[in-house]
Amino acid sequence: MQIIVERLALLAEKICTQAEIDSYRVFHGRGRTFAGLEFVTVDFFQPVILITLFFEPPAHWLDELIAQIHPLFASSNLVLVVQRRYMPNAPSEIVWGELPESIYARRGNSLFNLHLAQQQNSGFFLDMESGRQWVEQYAAGKRVLNLFAYTCAFSVVAITAGAEKVVNVDMSSAALNLGRANHQLNNLAKSKSEFVAENILKSWSRVKRPGPYDLVIIDPPSYQKGSFIAEKDYAKVIRRLPELMPAGGLVLACLNAPELSEGFLKQQFVEQCPQAEFIERVKPHADFPDIDPEQQLKLLVYRVPPSAA
Questions:
Q1: How many other C-beta atoms can be found within 10 angstroms of the C-beta atom of residue 14?
Q2: Is pLDDT at 102 greater than 70 in this prediction?
Q3: Are 230 and 257 within 8 A, CB to CB?
């Protein structure tokens, strides 16, 4: 517990000296690098501290933690939210403070709408920061296809970095509506983005139509019954890459499934798109240490060559 208190004490110091603080993971127990704290993570989305419990903590553990950290923030206007992911529907509790009407994840000059204390996922995944940094580096001048776009954070980053256009595809119209709101929030030109509400595996002609693309981002759910199961469906996406990018280009293939290895994803490319060249695995963000790299988020970069005429 002491390490969490120490991390939050550092946050309290930041708040005293910085008016605006980028959202970040304060403490990551899920990587099992802190024995006995595998059940908890702590995130900061100014002005909210979010404690997420993935398993029921030891008796009185949470009460003791709250008692120790409350004095650190007694003079601030922060809000403490505890989410219990181990319970049905992952209920959230506001422990102190009052949630503002609008809450955002902050990334530099960009903001992203959040729906904290409303559903399991906040709408912005902090662990994907390494992927966003990669897109930021390579998106300029590119036509980007953002598959499984969710709330379109990749799109905001790509357009801000100078992408020519981003096509966001997701089967959830509600998620894409949040994506549109994120673009509007950041004053991005409407002409730079397109939103396609389709089941990707059943609508390749609709996905292909706004192309061709120079950069493809694949960031699917690992297991979403009825729509996408990575172990059997990822291959169906990879085999389509040559027709989506006939002039060739870069692919960022993401896999957030601890049970599936880097080797699994590489094998899908070998079998489904053997002409693609593996470039690198993007290093996971430092805020998300793990004792086993195979358990971490996998971000693999490939180069697809131009298709034969």
A1: 12
A2: yes
A3: yes
